[in-house]
Amino acid sequence: MLLSRRPLCRCEKLASAPIDLRRLAVALLVLCALVLPFLLWGFRTYQLALAATHAIAILGLNLIAGQAGLISLGHGAFYGLGAYTLAVLTRHGSVSAYVGIFGAALVCLAAGYLFGRMVSRLARFYLALATFALALAVPQTLKSSYLAPWTGGVQGLYLDRPGAPLGLPLDQDQWWYFVTLGILGLALWMTRNLVAGRTGRAIRAMRDHPIAAEAAGIAVARYTALTFAIGAAYAGVAGALAALLLDFIAPESFTYWLSILLLVGAVFGGMTSVWGALAGGLFLQFWPDVAATVSRDLTQPVFGAILLLSMRFMPDGVAGLSSSARRSLERVFWLR
Description:
Blueprint: H1 10-35, H2 42-67, H3 75-91, H4 97-118, H5 125-142, H6 148-151, E1 157-158, H7 172-196, H8 198-208, H9 210-215, H10 220-246, E2 248-249, H11 256-269, H12 276-292, H13 299-313, H14 317-335
Antiparallel strand pairs: 1-2
């Protein structure tokens, strides 16, 4: 006997509505991202590709700091390690740029796991100091005379960015925009599944109640290392892509200031949100242009003012603000 379909009550409609709105928003966002390179001039496409690389790096930082609650001031070190891994593989190993990106992910995955194992027993300020020491050590190490034949020392390295394959009717900026966009989409999908799954719940439990999590059987040291490994792999991929887009890398490009900027982008976008990385990446790329409209001599003060205002009025970042706006819109819509 067929069962009759019961009409949904208002609370059930409210529960199902956000999923549809999210899918609609994601579909519109993907459509806009695919169309933009054909509507904008080349330099803007290039800037959007760089913003996507920032978003990939911030996504890894959101996983480390936002989901796991691990203070990290050395994310830029993994970013630089990924860039130099690609440079060494392509220049000295004669591999393609695409293999170099994959190699950067593997090297940073291993480096992040080892680093996470070493600092797994540290907490709060001690962990912050350890990660900050990493951010200070990596640029100096890259300048070492022992590594100069591979890294180019203080002179840096120039890279060759390949064009679109198979005769695709895309210029170099458009092609690498789509490559970066595809990797960003894959990273967002993987992170969303990770956060929503068993591993994500264990990581959040470690963040909220580390002692209770360990008492419940969660291997805190292993999950700390795993979180650093995945976050470092994202940073390595972002660094490799940025190196190809910039066509040049040098140790001074990966100082501790880069780690601070990535942390600022994570806070602005929403550190506990997967989608907040997109807003953070756009902010890091375009805030100098916004600040320059006020004064080119006041770029840093305007940047500080924007950061303070966002922390005051958007404590959960752009992602938190958009979630609040969506819930308000849903209430207005369903109460009519």
